Structures are given as C-alpha cells and as structure tokens.
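Appendix B. Chain record.
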Amino acid sequence: MTFRITLAGGALAGAALIATAAAAHHGWSSYDAERAMTPTAEVVESHWGSPHGSIVIVVDEQRWDVVLAPVSRMQTRGLDRADIAVGQTVTVEGYPRRDGTRELRAERITAGGQTVELR
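Structure tokens predicted for this chain:
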C-alpha cells in the first residue's frame, strides 16, 4: 500500500514538473500581440531542431532572434530547411517580447516563395 501511494505521488509530481516546464517554455504572454512586426531580412543564423526552429535576422542593424515552430510542423506545412538557411531572405510576421529583448515569436514566415503559418 505504501509503495503504491509513493509511486502515485511520484508520478503526480513528475507530471506537474513537466507541465510547469512546458508552460515556462511556451510563455507566450511575454510577447506583445498589440505590436505586430513584419520585417523582411536576410537570415544570418539558422537552427533546425528541437524543441523548435529559430533564425536570426538583422533589422536596422540590430540582431533579432526569431522563434519558429517545431520542425515537424514546419515540414508538414511545406517549409524546408533550405528555405530558412543562412543567406535566404525571409519576411517574418510576429510579435516582439514585452521586456525589450530583440526576439520575435513568429506567427507566419514567407520564405522560399511561400507563406507558411507557424502557430
């Protein structure tokens, strides 16, 4: 009986920890949906991996980190790794962080001749 209670308690604590980590990672409230931005720029860095893709673009001589979608979602919707490779020109529609950090949460991206919904 004690073992079952301990096991159940441990499983519950583990689930709560995972949910907390996921909520912290996807804290979309830290982005300002009232200040949509749509910069067009060349990709200077590109990451195609977990937990999501990302790129860096330079806008008005300032580097912006752009948070994209998970790779599986981008691929399913037709975005290829080559479309966001270094040197490619993209247009990103997204929201900046509220705290002034130069980071955009991308809602959609135009790259490789197509516009892809990311959220």
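Further analysis of this model is presented in Appendix C.
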